[in-house]
Amino acid sequence: MKIIEVGSRGLIFEFEDPYLINVYVIMCENRVYICDTFCGPASMSKIIERVRENGYKDQQIRVFNSHHHYDHIWGNCAFQETKIFSHHKCRDLIEERGQGDLVEFNEHKKGDVRIVMPSMTFSEEIIFHDDCVKFFYSPGHTVDSASCMDMQDRVLFVADNVEAPVPYLYNADFGTYLKTLERYNETDWDYMLSSHDHLMHDDVLLRQNMKYLNDLLRWDVSINEFSERAIATHVMNLIEIASELNIESDSIIKHHYARVLEFVRADEMRAVPDQLVAKLSQLLN
Length: 285
Ligand SMILES: [Zn+2]
Known about the structure:
CATH superfamily of the largest domain: Ribonuclease Z/Hydroxyacylglutathione hydrolase-like
Strand order of the largest sheet: 1-2-3-4-5-6-7
CATH architecture of the largest domain: 4-Layer Sandwich
Bound molecules: zinc ion
Structural class: alpha/beta
CATH class of the largest domain: Alpha Beta
Distance between the termini: 46 Å
Order of helices and strands: EEEEHEHEHEEEEEHEHHHH
Number of domains: 2
Number of strands: 12
Helix content: 25-40%
Largest sheet: 7 strands, mixed
Oligomer: single chain
Strand content: 15-25%
Protein backbone atom coordinates (compact mmCIF):
# COMPACT_ATOMS: atom_id res chain seq x y z
CA MET A 1 0.00 0.00 0.00
CA LYS A 2 1.24 3.47 -0.95
CA ILE A 3 0.14 6.70 0.72
CA ILE A 4 -0.07 9.82 -1.44
CA GLU A 5 -0.81 13.30 -0.10
CA VAL A 6 -3.24 15.43 -2.07
CA GLY A 7 -3.97 19.11 -1.38
CA SER A 8 -3.65 20.39 2.18
CA ARG A 9 -5.66 17.71 3.93
CA GLY A 10 -6.13 14.68 1.70
CA LEU A 11 -4.51 11.25 1.78
CA ILE A 12 -4.85 8.55 -0.86
CA PHE A 13 -4.28 4.98 0.27
CA GLU A 14 -3.43 3.20 -2.92
CA PHE A 15 -3.79 -0.59 -2.61
CA GLU A 16 -2.33 -2.87 -5.26
CA ASP A 17 -3.83 -6.25 -4.42
CA PRO A 18 -6.13 -7.72 -5.84
CA TYR A 19 -5.84 -4.74 -8.27
CA LEU A 20 -5.36 -0.98 -7.95
CA ILE A 21 -7.96 0.37 -5.51
CA ASN A 22 -7.89 3.81 -3.83
CA VAL A 23 -9.28 4.85 -0.48
CA TYR A 24 -9.47 8.64 -0.22
CA VAL A 25 -9.32 10.29 3.18
CA ILE A 26 -10.00 13.97 3.94
CA MET A 27 -8.78 15.15 7.32
CA CYS A 28 -10.85 18.18 8.32
CA GLU A 29 -11.15 20.34 11.42
CA ASN A 30 -14.44 18.82 12.52
CA ARG A 31 -14.43 15.32 11.01
CA VAL A 32 -12.32 12.87 9.09
CA TYR A 33 -14.03 11.51 5.96
CA ILE A 34 -13.08 8.11 4.59
CA CYS A 35 -14.26 7.59 1.01
CA ASP A 36 -14.77 3.85 0.39
CA THR A 37 -13.41 0.99 2.47
CA PHE A 38 -11.54 -1.33 0.08
CA CYS A 39 -11.92 -5.13 0.29
CA GLY A 40 -12.04 -5.65 4.03
CA PRO A 41 -11.39 -4.50 7.57
CA ALA A 42 -7.75 -5.69 7.70
CA SER A 43 -6.36 -2.50 6.11
CA MET A 44 -8.70 -0.02 7.75
CA SER A 45 -6.78 0.00 11.06
CA LYS A 46 -3.67 1.20 9.18
CA ILE A 47 -5.68 4.08 7.75
CA ILE A 48 -7.06 5.11 11.14
CA GLU A 49 -3.58 4.82 12.68
CA ARG A 50 -2.11 7.13 10.04
CA VAL A 51 -4.93 9.68 10.49
CA ARG A 52 -4.40 9.75 14.27
CA GLU A 53 -0.63 10.07 13.75
CA ASN A 54 -1.31 13.15 11.63
CA GLY A 55 -2.81 14.80 14.71
CA TYR A 56 -6.49 14.09 13.99
CA LYS A 57 -7.13 12.37 17.29
CA ASP A 58 -10.48 13.73 18.43
CA GLN A 59 -12.30 14.18 15.15
CA GLN A 60 -15.15 11.83 14.44
CA ILE A 61 -14.81 9.53 11.47
CA ARG A 62 -17.48 9.53 8.75
CA VAL A 63 -17.37 6.79 6.14
CA PHE A 64 -18.78 7.36 2.64
CA ASN A 65 -19.62 4.50 0.25
CA SER A 66 -19.46 5.63 -3.40
CA HIS A 67 -21.53 2.64 -4.58
CA HIS A 68 -22.44 -0.90 -3.59
CA HIS A 69 -19.61 -2.86 -5.29
CA TYR A 70 -17.65 -5.11 -2.91
CA ASP A 71 -14.28 -3.44 -3.46
CA HIS A 72 -15.74 -0.19 -2.06
CA ILE A 73 -17.68 -1.44 0.98
CA TRP A 74 -16.16 -4.58 2.47
CA GLY A 75 -14.10 -2.59 4.98
CA ASN A 76 -17.31 -1.05 6.40
CA CYS A 77 -17.28 -3.67 9.16
CA ALA A 78 -14.20 -1.99 10.68
CA PHE A 79 -16.46 0.95 11.59
CA GLN A 80 -19.61 1.43 13.62
CA GLU A 81 -22.65 1.37 11.39
CA THR A 82 -23.75 4.81 12.61
CA LYS A 83 -20.74 6.41 10.98
CA ILE A 84 -21.42 5.18 7.43
CA PHE A 85 -23.45 7.01 4.80
CA SER A 86 -24.26 6.61 1.08
CA HIS A 87 -26.87 7.33 -1.56
CA HIS A 88 -30.14 5.53 -0.68
CA LYS A 89 -29.89 3.29 -3.77
CA CYS A 90 -26.46 2.14 -2.62
CA ARG A 91 -27.89 1.02 0.71
CA ASP A 92 -30.71 -0.85 -1.10
CA LEU A 93 -28.25 -2.59 -3.42
CA ILE A 94 -25.94 -3.63 -0.56
CA GLU A 95 -28.98 -5.12 1.14
CA GLU A 96 -29.97 -6.94 -2.05
CA ARG A 97 -26.57 -8.17 -3.24
CA GLY A 98 -24.17 -7.94 -0.29
CA GLN A 99 -24.37 -11.56 0.82
CA GLY A 100 -24.20 -12.93 -2.73
CA ASP A 101 -21.12 -10.83 -3.52
CA LEU A 102 -19.41 -12.21 -0.39
CA VAL A 103 -19.62 -15.67 -1.94
CA GLU A 104 -18.91 -14.65 -5.54
CA PHE A 105 -15.79 -12.56 -4.83
CA ASN A 106 -14.65 -14.54 -1.79
CA GLU A 107 -11.01 -14.70 -2.94
CA HIS A 108 -10.70 -10.89 -2.79
CA LYS A 109 -11.53 -10.64 0.93
CA LYS A 110 -9.03 -8.78 3.10
CA GLY A 111 -9.70 -9.93 6.64
CA ASP A 112 -12.91 -11.16 8.20
CA VAL A 113 -15.56 -9.44 6.10
CA ARG A 114 -19.07 -8.95 7.38
CA ILE A 115 -21.61 -6.92 5.38
CA VAL A 116 -22.31 -3.65 7.21
CA MET A 117 -24.77 -1.25 5.65
CA PRO A 118 -24.80 2.54 5.80
CA SER A 119 -27.06 3.87 8.54
CA MET A 120 -27.61 7.22 6.87
CA THR A 121 -28.53 7.95 3.25
CA PHE A 122 -29.05 10.96 1.00
CA SER A 123 -30.89 11.53 -2.30
CA GLU A 124 -29.26 14.46 -4.08
CA GLU A 125 -26.41 15.65 -1.92
CA ILE A 126 -25.12 16.16 1.56
CA ILE A 127 -22.85 19.09 2.39
CA PHE A 128 -20.73 19.35 5.51
CA HIS A 129 -20.51 23.14 5.39
CA ASP A 130 -18.24 23.43 8.42
CA ASP A 131 -15.63 21.26 6.65
CA CYS A 132 -16.29 22.42 3.05
CA VAL A 133 -16.93 18.86 1.85
CA LYS A 134 -19.77 17.78 -0.43
CA PHE A 135 -21.11 14.33 -1.36
CA PHE A 136 -23.48 14.16 -4.32
CA TYR A 137 -25.46 11.68 -6.40
CA SER A 138 -23.72 11.00 -9.73
CA PRO A 139 -25.34 8.00 -11.47
CA GLY A 140 -23.28 6.41 -14.25
CA HIS A 141 -21.11 3.35 -13.74
CA THR A 142 -23.98 2.10 -11.54
CA VAL A 143 -27.40 3.57 -10.70
CA ASP A 144 -26.27 4.24 -7.11
CA SER A 145 -22.93 5.96 -7.85
CA ALA A 146 -22.08 9.06 -5.82
CA SER A 147 -19.04 11.37 -5.71
CA CYS A 148 -17.21 13.56 -3.22
CA MET A 149 -15.87 17.09 -3.65
CA ASP A 150 -13.39 18.66 -1.29
CA MET A 151 -14.44 22.23 -2.04
CA GLN A 152 -11.51 23.74 -0.17
CA ASP A 153 -8.72 21.85 -1.95
CA ARG A 154 -10.71 21.28 -5.15
CA VAL A 155 -10.27 17.54 -5.19
CA LEU A 156 -13.01 15.57 -6.95
CA PHE A 157 -13.40 11.90 -6.06
CA VAL A 158 -15.37 10.13 -8.81
CA ALA A 159 -14.97 6.46 -7.75
CA ASP A 160 -15.67 4.14 -10.73
CA ASN A 161 -17.40 6.74 -12.93
CA VAL A 162 -14.07 7.53 -14.58
CA GLU A 163 -11.78 4.65 -15.41
CA ALA A 164 -8.99 3.82 -17.83
CA PRO A 165 -9.22 2.93 -20.63
CA VAL A 166 -13.05 2.83 -20.68
CA PRO A 167 -15.42 2.57 -17.70
CA TYR A 168 -17.37 -0.55 -16.75
CA LEU A 169 -21.10 -0.22 -17.38
CA TYR A 170 -23.78 -1.83 -15.21
CA ASN A 171 -26.76 -0.23 -16.97
CA ALA A 172 -27.60 1.05 -20.44
CA ASP A 173 -28.58 4.61 -19.46
CA PHE A 174 -25.68 6.24 -21.31
CA GLY A 175 -27.40 9.65 -21.42
CA THR A 176 -27.56 9.90 -17.62
CA TYR A 177 -23.96 8.72 -17.33
CA LEU A 178 -22.82 11.33 -19.83
CA LYS A 179 -24.64 14.07 -17.86
CA THR A 180 -22.66 13.05 -14.76
CA LEU A 181 -19.37 13.25 -16.69
CA GLU A 182 -20.41 16.63 -18.13
CA ARG A 183 -21.07 17.81 -14.59
CA TYR A 184 -17.54 16.76 -13.59
CA ASN A 185 -16.26 18.57 -16.67
CA GLU A 186 -18.02 21.79 -15.63
CA THR A 187 -16.79 21.60 -12.04
CA ASP A 188 -13.63 23.48 -11.08
CA TRP A 189 -11.27 20.88 -9.73
CA ASP A 190 -7.49 20.73 -9.53
CA TYR A 191 -7.26 17.00 -8.90
CA MET A 192 -9.50 14.17 -9.97
CA LEU A 193 -9.29 10.85 -8.19
CA SER A 194 -10.93 7.71 -9.50
CA SER A 195 -10.92 4.41 -7.62
CA HIS A 196 -8.78 2.38 -9.98
CA ASP A 197 -6.32 4.85 -11.51
CA HIS A 198 -3.53 7.06 -10.19
CA LEU A 199 -4.36 10.62 -9.15
CA MET A 200 -5.12 12.85 -12.16
CA HIS A 201 -4.29 16.52 -12.70
CA ASP A 202 -5.84 16.84 -16.15
CA ASP A 203 -9.05 15.90 -17.92
CA VAL A 204 -7.58 13.59 -20.58
CA LEU A 205 -9.20 10.42 -19.20
CA LEU A 206 -12.46 12.20 -18.39
CA ARG A 207 -12.71 13.35 -22.01
CA GLN A 208 -11.80 9.89 -23.28
CA ASN A 209 -14.60 8.36 -21.15
CA MET A 210 -17.02 11.06 -22.36
CA LYS A 211 -16.20 10.19 -25.95
CA TYR A 212 -16.86 6.50 -25.25
CA LEU A 213 -20.32 7.27 -23.86
CA ASN A 214 -21.10 9.72 -26.65
CA ASP A 215 -20.15 7.05 -29.19
CA LEU A 216 -22.26 4.47 -27.35
CA LEU A 217 -25.27 6.76 -27.50
CA ARG A 218 -25.01 6.51 -31.30
CA TRP A 219 -23.77 2.87 -31.23
CA ASP A 220 -20.81 4.06 -33.23
CA VAL A 221 -17.78 3.08 -31.13
CA SER A 222 -14.36 3.32 -32.77
CA ILE A 223 -13.23 -0.15 -31.70
CA ASN A 224 -10.47 -0.13 -34.33
CA GLU A 225 -8.66 2.48 -32.25
CA PHE A 226 -9.14 0.60 -28.95
CA SER A 227 -6.38 -1.08 -26.96
CA GLU A 228 -6.87 -4.78 -26.19
CA ARG A 229 -7.84 -3.88 -22.63
CA ALA A 230 -10.45 -1.39 -23.86
CA ILE A 231 -11.93 -4.00 -26.19
CA ALA A 232 -12.10 -6.56 -23.36
CA THR A 233 -13.94 -4.07 -21.13
CA HIS A 234 -16.23 -3.07 -23.97
CA VAL A 235 -17.17 -6.72 -24.58
CA MET A 236 -17.91 -7.16 -20.87
CA ASN A 237 -20.07 -4.02 -21.01
CA LEU A 238 -22.02 -5.28 -24.03
CA ILE A 239 -22.72 -8.56 -22.18
CA GLU A 240 -23.65 -6.79 -18.93
CA ILE A 241 -26.21 -4.42 -20.49
CA ALA A 242 -27.64 -6.85 -23.09
CA SER A 243 -30.76 -7.68 -21.05
CA GLU A 244 -31.82 -4.01 -21.18
CA LEU A 245 -31.59 -3.83 -24.96
CA ASN A 246 -33.57 -5.18 -27.88
CA ILE A 247 -30.64 -6.57 -29.79
CA GLU A 248 -32.83 -8.73 -32.00
CA SER A 249 -35.19 -6.00 -33.16
CA ASP A 250 -32.90 -2.95 -33.21
CA SER A 251 -30.75 -3.21 -36.32
CA ILE A 252 -28.25 -0.52 -35.24
CA ILE A 253 -27.55 -2.25 -31.92
CA LYS A 254 -27.47 -5.66 -33.57
CA HIS A 255 -25.02 -4.41 -36.16
CA HIS A 256 -22.71 -3.10 -33.43
CA TYR A 257 -22.77 -6.37 -31.49
CA ALA A 258 -22.04 -8.29 -34.69
CA ARG A 259 -19.21 -5.95 -35.61
CA VAL A 260 -17.57 -6.34 -32.18
CA LEU A 261 -17.96 -10.12 -32.35
CA GLU A 262 -16.32 -10.23 -35.75
CA PHE A 263 -13.52 -7.98 -34.46
CA VAL A 264 -12.70 -10.09 -31.37
CA ARG A 265 -12.83 -13.31 -33.34
CA ALA A 266 -9.93 -12.05 -35.42
CA ASP A 267 -6.68 -13.83 -34.53
CA GLU A 268 -4.86 -10.86 -33.07
CA MET A 269 -7.48 -10.17 -30.40
CA ARG A 270 -6.27 -12.45 -27.63
CA ALA A 271 -7.18 -10.17 -24.72
CA VAL A 272 -10.81 -11.22 -24.78
CA PRO A 273 -11.28 -14.61 -23.09
CA ASP A 274 -13.00 -17.29 -25.18
CA GLN A 275 -15.78 -17.51 -22.61
CA LEU A 276 -16.72 -13.86 -23.23
CA VAL A 277 -16.55 -14.29 -26.98
CA ALA A 278 -18.93 -17.25 -26.62
CA LYS A 279 -21.34 -15.20 -24.51
CA LEU A 280 -21.28 -12.36 -27.02
CA SER A 281 -21.98 -14.83 -29.79
CA GLN A 282 -24.94 -16.31 -27.88
CA LEU A 283 -26.51 -12.85 -27.65
CA LEU A 284 -26.70 -12.75 -31.42
CA ASN A 285 -28.35 -16.14 -31.81
ZN1 LIG B 1 -17.75 -0.41 -9.24
